[in-house]
Amino acid sequence: MGRWEPGASSRLREAALALYLERGFEQTMVADIAERAGVTARTFFRYFADKREVFFDASAELEEKSLAALEAAPATAPPLDAVAAALVAAAEVIGGNRELARVRQAVIMANASLRERELIKLTSMSVAVADGLRRRGVGNAEASLAAETGVAVFRVAFERWVNAAEDRALGDVIRETLAQLRTLTAAS
Amino acid sequence: MGRWEPGASSRLREAALALYLERGFEQTMVADIAERAGVTARTFFRYFADKREVFFDASAELEEKSLAALEAAPATAPPLDAVAAALVAAAEVIGGNRELARVRQAVIMANASLRERELIKLTSMSVAVADGLRRRGVGNAEASLAAETGVAVFRVAFERWVNAAEDRALGDVIRETLAQLRTLTAAS
């Protein structure tokens, strides 16, 4: 895929985000995105199923790397430590470019259908992590709870990281947020 | 509202759920629901904005009672204890009829647009609880984390309760799930 159009997918992604910010997501057509990226609409559809997919095409990689990290965690690791390893692996996929993440987040928050898709994506992540924990021998109820809690930590950490004035890595913010959760639950 | 149609709103709700189960949500029209409940479509729209609202019309009451419980928690209560009080108050609104909750859940899970609306509702609940915690003087970051964690506990507890073979109250399942979260976070 794409050998005939070097860099087309990242040019398309940048063009799409720029147009979504300038004109709004609803007002941007695939043809406009392709034009700005200097390719045809047909090339756009080689990389993305539709204009929403520009935001979510990393999901498969995200899930894959998270689950690999979950599996690689020591067999003796408590469930929440295994989940933490999965979250940090997810952070490595999406945490490389905070400016891009910030623009993406701004566009998603401004559009109800994108917000919904984001929530669905997080829910399916939670289901996948819970399944991964069950494969590690964690009990059914405990697996769901650890996965849901992990996603909650991830959401909070991601929002902090995206809006942060300083330059910590997303993985570090996740670890810090998890430590705060431990303090919160111990306090009460 | 509704003095001229005693019991119309609960008859409409029951008729709607029965039809959604029989025919599917998409295939059920407002006119069908009204007919089965023995009222006019106009009466339906006195109570519900559309056929999705049949599932979500308790949301306002849920949020109101949760926030009241949050405010009523002792000033010295740790954040997660205040959140627990809010969740148990929410359980009192929706935990009265498990059979109804089970049917509602089955229909929601079978329909993507209803699942999305449910997720949006839970997110807005989390935002409201976080705001409530800030009004109690809890720090910004800690408030979001406690609220997101609370919603995670609620989701897991609700699913357990809806599918449970035994007859515990939803509030008790919430308390138990929160205790399990403490064990999980302490373990690692």
Automatic annotation (TrEMBL), chains A, B:
Segments passing through the bilayer: none
Keywords, sorted A to Z: DNA-binding, Transcription, Transcription regulation
InterPro entries on file: Homeodomain-like_sf, HTH-type_TetR-like_transc_reg, HTH_TetR, MftR_C
The keyword Transcription belongs to this UniProt entry's keyword annotation: yes
GO molecular function: DNA-binding transcription factor activity; transcription cis-regulatory region binding
Pfam families hit by this protein: TetR_C_14, TetR_N
HTH tetR-type domain ranges (all copies): 6-66
Residue ranges: DNA binding: 29-48
PANTHER family with a match to the protein in the record: HTH-TYPE TRANSCRIPTIONAL REGULATOR RUTR (PTHR30055), MYCOFACTOCIN BIOSYNTHESIS TRANSCRIPTIONAL REGULATOR MFTR-RELATED (PTHR30055:SF238)
Name of this protein: Regulatory protein TetR
Organism: Streptomyces violaceusniger (strain Tu 4113)
Classification lineage: Bacteria, Bacillati, Actinomycetota, Actinomycetes, Kitasatosporales
